[in-house]
Amino acid sequence: MEGNNQSLPIMFYMIGFSNHPDLQLLFFALFLIIYVAALLGNSLITTIIANDSRLHTPMYFFLINLSILDICCTTFAIPMVLQILLSTDKAISFSECIIQLCIFTSALSTELMLLMVMGLDRYVAICIPLHYSTIMSKRTCILLAAVVWIVGFINSFLQTELILKLTFCQHNILDHFFCEIPSLLNLACSDTFINNVVVIGADILISMSCFLLTVISYTYIISAILKIRSADKKKKAFSTCASHLTVVTLYYGGVIYTYVKSTFNNNPETDKVMSAVYAFISPVLNPIIYSLRNKEVIDAFKKLLERSKIPKR
């Protein structure tokens, strides 16, 4: 996979943080903390849900999928960022870059669709509660999860194949901190028209349509919440919905901006900030927003801790 039938090996030189050489150790510490927090938070959620039968419901089934995706997303992005920060030449090979791009794009696409499915699940639970168990059956949940994973992989495979057809120079300066489709397209020496069309098409079909469906789902959910008579229950429900919508908006907004706007107007500094939001910040926030603020999860965590204690003799 040395790329595009070129005889000389292709290298990418990451300069995402090179403009601030005195802050390299600070950036390293920051990204390490983010990675550890995302890894521990999502691993904890997965362990808690898997070990408590009371949480074996559609909502928590999708949460496990979300946690696995967040672990994949951060694991195939942040460790390489840490390596680049410590290295002197800031270089990675074409093969390493393509592998990171393929897996990261697959996880990104899948998570976009999964967030939409989670919104639809909450819509059915709150707006059609009497038919919830029938609509969101075990078979349906597994099928939905399988579809989003497969479609995410297909999108990633297609995007990666198109990247492999491009021609790159032997030495490429990549003004980013990990390999992502828009940043690689800016470095290509050959025509990227087809790539840009496919990127925008995929973004419209996946990102924008999923975001629209998620917003519609939460619109109906909020409408149902307004009918709740209890002020405390209404306040709690609104708080949860607001948190979920904040995370969803940040995630979708960052992806849509990066993969659509950057094809027309490239701003490396802004692109890096937006990429950090959905690639690094969101995986840290998801366990807190979706699970750790949930009483059922907290109770299950306490139960897990009690079971793990060594009996006193």
Automatic annotation (TrEMBL):
Localization, UniProt: Cell membrane
Gene Ontology MF term list: G protein-coupled receptor activity; olfactory receptor activity
Membrane topology term: Multi-pass membrane protein
Organism expressing this protein natively: Geotrypetes seraphini
Designated name of the protein: Olfactory receptor
Main location, first listed in the record: membrane
GO CC terms: plasma membrane
InterPro entries, A to Z: GPCR_Rhodpsn (IPR000276), GPCR_Rhodpsn_7TM (IPR017452), Olfact_rcpt (IPR000725), Olfactory_GPCR (IPR050516)
Family to which this protein belongs: Belongs to the G-protein coupled receptor 1 family.
CDD domains registered for this protein in UniProt: 7tmA_OR
TM region(s), chain numbering: 25-50, 62-86, 98-120, 141-158, 204-226, 238-260, 272-292
Superkingdom of origin: Eukaryota
Residue ranges of every copy of the G-protein coupled receptors family 1 profile domain listed in the record: 41-290
Keywords in alphabetical order: Cell membrane, G-protein coupled receptor, Membrane, Olfaction, Receptor, Sensory transduction, Transducer, Transmembrane, Transmembrane helix
Gene3D superfamilies: Rhodopsin 7-helix transmembrane proteins (1.20.1070.10)
Pfam families: 7tm_4
